[in-house]
Amino acid sequence: MRGLIPRPTLGQVAVSLLIALAGFLAAQTLTQVDRDLRVLYTEYTLAAADLGHVSGDLIRYRSTILRALEAPTAQEAERILAALPGQRTRVLRALDRYAAASRQVARGGPAATAALQALRTQVETYFADADETVRLIRRRWTATRLAEAAAWQEQAEQHAAARAGTTLIQVSVALDQVLDGVAQVAGALYEDGARTTRRSSLLLVGGSLTLIALVLFGSRAPASVRPLLRETSPSMRDGIPTNVASQLNHCEDSPAPDPKKSRYQEAPSWTGDQGP
User: Fold this and answer.
1) Which residues pair with 240 in a beta bridge?
2) Which 3 state secondary structure label does DSSP give 261?
3) Secondary-structure percent of the chain, ordered helix, strand, coil, rounded to 5
């Protein structure tokens, strides 16, 4: 059985190795592209979208404080201010999610990290100024005299307009810088994916052409013909099998037929009685 299995030639081994290499490169390329797409569209992009909503959430936060400033009663002001913790949690959660996604991507470099830290600092500063405005609003409703309440109301309005408003503008500027970094990182991921795809495509095309060349122009060993054991033997003479040579010798030793005799002359004579 071992002799019936043909041994692979050098060309067949080379073709097999090239096929395996092409499959490995294709798998690596698909894995890398899948990872980049997953990070870009399901993690980084969604986190960046939530970060883009931070500006709207901060404006909503400021609008809530301004509504509390105009509340006619203390109960109404407290009811409006009760929505502030949830809005603040949403903003901080968006910042944390984007920070985690940017660390996973690790493409922005120190500039992106510094921009994100600046945004976080400005947001914390704005929340501190907003807390001061909320404190002044509550002091208004705890005042015992109308003049004192009016004074606290005026301070709260000035603080909300001057200090908290300026801080909110700084938050918007820092947010724009972070979003610019998001666009740069997305562009870098796209370029890396396109470059990887082009390189792998060239390698696959080159491997395919090499395989075609090996198949069409590769050296082919002649097929070996196994001798038939019943018709040949080691004692062959002049390249003629033994049984065929013996038949030829027998034909040479037998006498040649006489051409003058016909088949009628060679017929046996009749020895029976002849009729009348």
Assistant:
1) 237
2) coil
3) 75, 0, 25
Q: Can you tell me the distance from the alpha carbon of 175 to that of 178, in angstroms, rounded to the nearest whole number?
A: 5
d(CA 179, CA 45): 11
135 token code pair:
């404190």
Based on DSSP, count helices (H) and strands (E) in the chain, helices before strands: 9, 0
d(CA 80, CA 82) in angstroms, rounded, equals 5
Which tens digits make up the pLDDT trace of 94-142? 888 888 877 766 666 677 788 888 889 999 999 999 999 999 999 999 9
Instruction: Give the span between the Cα atoms of 80 and 61, in whole angstroms.
Output: 11
CB-based contact 102:44 (threshold 8 Å): yes
Q: Which helix (H) or strand (E) holds 59?
A: helix 54-69
DSSP string, 84-125: HHHHHHHHHHHHHHHHHHHHHH--SHHHHHHHHHHHHHHHHH
Kind plus residue range of the DSSP H or E element containing 212: helix 164-217
- What is the DSSP secondary structure assignment for residue 237, as one 8-state letter? B
For 100, half-sphere exposure in the C-beta direction (CA atoms, 13 angstrom radius) is: 10
> In which element (H, E) is residue 147 found?
helix 146-158
Closest CA to 69 of 148, 143, 168, 154: 154
Determine the distance from the C-alpha atom of residue 127 to the mean position of all C-alpha atoms in its chain, rounded to a whole number: 41
3-class DSSP state of 73: coil
CA gap 81, 75 in Å, rounded: 10
pLDDT digits (tens, 9 = 90+) for 193-234: 677 777 777 777 777 777 777 666 665 545 554 544 444 445
Q: At the top level of CATH, which class does the domain 10-217 belong to?
A: mainly alpha
d(CA 47, CA 185): 13
- Domains of the chain: which residue ranges? 10-217
The answer to pTM > 0.85 is no
